[in-house]
Specification:
Methylamine Dehydrogenase, Chain H, single chain, 5-stranded antiparallel sheet, 2% helix, mainly beta, 33 strands, 4-stranded antiparallel sheet
Length: 422
């Protein structure tokens, strides 16, 4: 039988302020789908699911939305499912099979933690997708969903602050909770030495989970009896700390950006930033300087890890070659300035424009937004490493205020091997 070429990558472009998600075909940028009236919960982000699907939380409607970016071209709807969840959504994660999900709640537009609601979701429940809401502990918890031998064995693990802990709940037990948001009983709890956790990752191959804290990356695993067991933490390998963790499932590497410098947010141009990596199989750990300013989330392409750096002296896209020995910087590409960009003396996240970044393990393409301009800059990381990387600018009809949010999907890319929303 003739082999049909794989469809080209899709870029999901969420304007959470305007309330729309665009689906663009890459590299040309042709719109293949659009979802109106959906306000993505930016902090929870997009979650890759098996079958080239993507999930996010609509923070206005209070729904988990599952998208099938290739559906419209194959006779399927773009929106595969919509399930009620508690909001404002803080973090979103799935089990390795992509069936069982969990959504935690955070501050939203409030100054103090106020919500203790956790939502458990079963996308393949009898009769269709189903969700249940329970009470846990007020805060801004991170979340991972550890898979077992079947749906009855999965654990939802919350990473709490003040006091720091990893608290596990049986997903099956959550799904049988009564109406009216009753308190949930933990199945296991593991105290953390730090009360400043921020950033979570889960390695489905080993079942380990990871939590970024000020003193290092805390590690835990399940023992045979379903209890959480602490392991030796990973060091940040120098000054500063990471506020974000991401698993590269293709190269089995943990990534973060370690921030140092003055603690005051108004002095953000003086912050130092190092790309931090840890090889899960060899145990090797390293750091690479990225430059001063604001660096936060990162993106994983086929052969590169990409960081967007914001600074008053000029923004740039920094590309690190991976998979061939220790990571190393191969290109630094200038990015056009943003009107309304962060300024010295003010915080880099309140009332200013930002940048979102995305890539796929199945493609060399990297996309980064220009907040407030309705633009996405697209670059081929492989070509950039060779010194010839024209930057293509794609336009959407909404401004992408606050930077918008992106997800890049490539058929069969295995991105769901990182089962935490980004």
């Amino acid at each position: 039988m003739p082999q049909h070429p794989a469809p080209p990558p899709r870029l999901l472009v969420a304007d959470q302020v305007a309330g729309v998600v665009h689906v663009l075909e890459l590299p040309g940028g042709r719109e293949t789908g659009r979802v109106e009236g959906r306000h993505l919960a930016e902090h929870a982000g997009f979650l890759a699911l098996p079958g080239d699907r993507t999930a996010f939380v609509d923070d206005l409607a209070g729904e988990l939305v599952v998208l099938d970016p290739y559906g419209p071209g194959a006779g399927r709807p773009l929106v595969e499912a919509a399930v009620p969840v508690a909001v404002p959504a803080e973090h979103l994660a799935a089990d390795p099979a992509g069936r069982l999900l969990a959504v935690t709640t955070g501050l939203g537009r409030n100054w103090e933690p106020w919500s203790d609601l956790l939502t458990a979701v079963d996308l393949k429940a009898a009769g269709g997708p189903r969700s249940v809401r329970v009470r846990t502990r007020t805060g801004e918890p991170g979340v991972t969903v550890l898979g077992g031998d079947g749906p009855d064995d999965a654990l939802v693990v919350l990473r709490h602050r003040e006091p720091g802990s990893l608290t596990a709940y049986r997903h099956a037990g959550l799904m049988t909770a009564a109406p009216a948001c009753p308190p949930a009983e933990p199945a296991a709890e593991l105290p953390l030495a730090d009360d400043d956790g921020h950033g979570d990752a889960h390695d489905p191959l080993t079942g380990r989970l990871f939590a970024a804290t000020g003193s290092g990356v805390r590690r835990a695993r399940l023992d045979g009896g379903g209890l959480l067991v602490a392991e030796e933490p990973l060091s940040w390998a120098g000054d500063g700390r990471g506020y974000y963790l991401r698993l590269d499932p293709a190269r089995r590497t943990l990534w973060s950006c370690v921030r140092g410098g003055p603690a005051e947010p108004a002095r953000w141009p003086e912050w130092t930033n190092d790309a931090w990596w840890h090889d899960l199989d060899s145990g090797r750990t390293g750091r690479l300087p990225l430059g001063p300013g604001l660096v936060f989330r990162l993106a994983l392409a086929a052969r590169h890890t990409a960081f967007a750096r914001v600074h008053p002296d000029g923004d740039e896209l920094v590309l690190l070659r991976t998979g061939t020995g220790d990571p190393h910087v191969t290109a630094r590409l200038p990015l056009p300035a943003m009107d309304g960009a962060p300024r010295p003396g003010g915080t880099p996240w309140d009332g200013v424009q930002r940048r979102a970044i995305a890539a796929s393990p199945g493609s060399p393409l990297v996309a980064v937004t220009r907040g407030g301009h309705g633009e996405i800059h697209l670059v081929d990381a492989d070509a950039a490493a060779g010194g010839s990387a024209p930057v293509t600018t794609l336009k959407v009809p909404t401004p992408l205020n606050d930077g918008g949010h992106l997800a890049l999907v490539c058929p069969g890319d295995g991105a769901h091997g990182d089962p935490v929303g980004r």
